[in-house]
Amino acid sequence: MLARFIMNKFISSLKRLFIAIVFALMLGAVIIIITSSKPSNAIKIFFLGPFSNKYFFGNMISYAIPLIISGLAASIAFSANMWNMGLEGQLYIGGLCGTYFACQMSSYPAAIAIPIALIVSFLVGGAIAAVSSYLKTKWNINVFLSSLLIANGLFPFVTFFLEGPFNDPKAGFAASPRFNQNFMFSKILSPSELHSGLFIALGFVVLFYFIRRQRVLGYEIKITGENALFAYYGGVPTGRVEIIAMFLSGGLAGLAGMINVFGSTGRMLGYMSMIGWNGIPIAIIARYDPIIVVPAALLFSFIQKGAEAGALFADITPQVAQLIQAAIFYIITAEGLFDFIGIWKRKVVK
C-alpha cells in the first residue's frame, strides 16, 4: 500500500512537471516566432539541434552533469528547509581548492590525485555551507541571507587567486594553470565533450535516493524540513540534521565545480556558466526528488544547447534559453501557489 502511494505520488509529480514543460516550450516557440526572421527554421534547429549528431547530443549530456549534481545539492538543503543560496560560491571555492591540489599533485598517479582533489572540493564546499547552518543553530541567523552573503564574498576571493598568485600567464584571462591532463575524465562519445563524470553524477543520484527513502538520515532531513518543531519534540536532533544537510549540499556544489574542471575545462576558470544558480530551479522543479533532478537537469541542458545551436545556425539569441528556463520555473512555482490557494479555500469553506 505504501509503495503504491509513493509510486502514484511520483507519477503525479511527473505528469504535473510534463504539463508545465509543455506550456513553457510553447512559450519558447512563440518567443522564437516573434524574434526570428525565419521562425520555422529557427524552431526546427532549436528543438532538433541537440539531437542532430553525436557532437551536439554528447555536449548536451555533458552540460547536464554538473547541473545534476548542483540540483542534488539544492534538493538536500531545501528538503531540510535550509535555503542554501550560496551554491554558486561553494562551487567556485570547491573547484578552486580542488584544482590547486590537482596542480600540486601533477606528478602523482591519476588514481591518487583525482580522488583527493574531488574529496578536497567536497570538504571545502561543505565546510563553507555548514557555516550558515551553524550560524542559524547558534544565533538564529537567516540561512538564506547568510549563505548568499558568504557566497558573494567568495567570488572576489576566487577571482583574486585566478588573476594573481594562481593565474596562468599564458591564458590571458582569469584561469588557473593546467594540471596533468592525464587527470581529465575519459571521453565517452567522441567527438563530443561527454565524459565519465556522468557515472559519478548518476551514482550520487542513486545514493541520495537511497538515503532519502531508506535511511534514518533521510527521514530526519525530511521531517525537519516539514516541521522542525515537531521533529525536535519527536526526538530528532534538528540542529545537527540542518548542519549535515547544509554540509552535504555545499559539498556536492563544490564537487560539481571540480567535476566540471576534470570533465570539461581542464583548469579552473573565472566563469562557470551559472551551474550553481541553475541547481536551485532544477531542485524546485524536481520537488527535491533525486530521481526527477536528472530529467530536470537534462531539460535545462537541452534548452541551453538548443539556444546555442540556434545562435550558430539561425538567428536565435542565446537569451532565449534563459527566458524559457525562467518560464518553466515560474510555471512550476505558480502551480504550487495555486495548490496552496486551493487548500486555503477548502479550509475556509469548512
* Global geometry: globular
What would you say the CATH architecture is?
Orthogonal Bundle
Average pLDDT metric: 86
Q: Give the ordered list of helices and strands.
A: HHHHHHHHHHHHH
Query: What is the CA-atom radius of gyration, in angstroms?
Result: 21 Å
Largest sheet: none
Determine the N-to-C terminus distance.
29 Å
Describe this structure in words.
This protein is mostly helical. It has one domain: ABC transporter involved in vitamin B12 uptake, BtuC (Orthogonal Bundle), CATH 1.10.3470. It contains 13 helices and no strands. The chain is globular and about 60 Å long.
Question: Tags for this entry?
Answer:
ABC transporter involved in vitamin B12 uptake, BtuC; 13 helices; about 75% helix; globular; disordered C terminus
Short description:
The protein has helices spanning 2-35, 39-48, 54-79, 87-104, 110-139, 143-163, 197-214, 216-226, 228-233, 238-265, 275-285, 290-313, 319-349. It is mostly helical and 350 residues long.
SSE blueprint:
Elements: H1 2-35, H2 39-48, H3 54-79, H4 87-104, H5 110-139, H6 143-163, H7 197-214, H8 216-226, H9 228-233, H10 238-265, H11 275-285, H12 290-313, H13 319-349
